Amino acid sequence: MTTPFVHRNLPRLLLQAREAVMAHTRPGLRAHGLSDQQWRVLRVLGEHGEVETGRVAREAFILGPSLTGVLKRMERDGLIRRARDAADQRRTVVNLTAKGLKAVDKLSHTIETHYTFMEESLGTQKLTRLYSLLDAVIQLEQSA
Fold first, then answer.
1. Does 55 score more than 90 pLDDT?
2. Is the pLDDT of residue 9 over 90?
3. Is 144 a residue whose pLDDT tops 90?
4. What pLDDT does 87 receive?
5. Is residue 83 assigned to a domain?
6. Tens of pLDDT, residues 85-137
7. Residue 38: CB atoms within 10 Å
8. N- to C-terminal Cα distance for the chain?
9. Is-contact 82 92, C-beta < 8 A?
10. What DSSP string describes 87-118?
């Protein structure tokens, strides 16, 4: 029996590509006792500094209830600090501790080395085109 599908399974291919890339990242994360979700939080904070928890959830792609548990464990482990937003006490902000910053610094070198390998293997133009295509797909689907 054949299926009516004409196009390749894009969501599956995107997941497969993610898993292929993460296969190089996960050993370093595990060596630091971090989950994928914890790394995504650290990455957001490493890129932006102090961030409101809603933004962390959006940028790290972690649902609110799950983020609460992730942040609780990260705070317990001394990686992040949570505090009330000085401008709006109803909001919570998160930032890196010295230990969290050190983890971001160490892991970012390993991850950037892998990105350099990808760029050298694929070529700068192809990697740039991949980023552009992914941005275009995201924009297209968000506006649909």
1. yes
2. yes
3. no
4. 86
5. yes
6. 888 888 999 999 999 999 999 999 999 999 999 999 999 999 999 999 999 99
7. 23
8. 32
9. yes
10. S-TTSEEEEE-HHHHHHHHHHHHHHHHHHHHH
Question: What is the token pair recorded at 26?
Answer: 């996960």
Q: Residue 2 domain-assigned? A: no
Q: What is the mean pLDDT of residues 24-33?
A: 93
CATH number, domain of 118, equals 1.10.10.10
Q: Give 61's contacts (C-beta < 8 A, 6+ positions apart).
A: 40
- Please give the helix or strand (H or E) that residue 34 lies within, else none: none
- Amino acid in the structure at residue 62: I
Give the count of domains, the chain.
1
CA gap 32, 19 in Å, rounded: 19
Contact 63, 77 (CB under 8 A): no
| Residue 114 belongs to a domain | yes
103/32 Cα distance (integer angstroms): 7
- Note whether residue 5 is domain-resident: no
Answer whether 109's CB lies under 8 Å from 101's CB. no
Residue 35 structural domain: 10-143
Band the pLDDT of 53: cuts 50, 70, 90.
very high
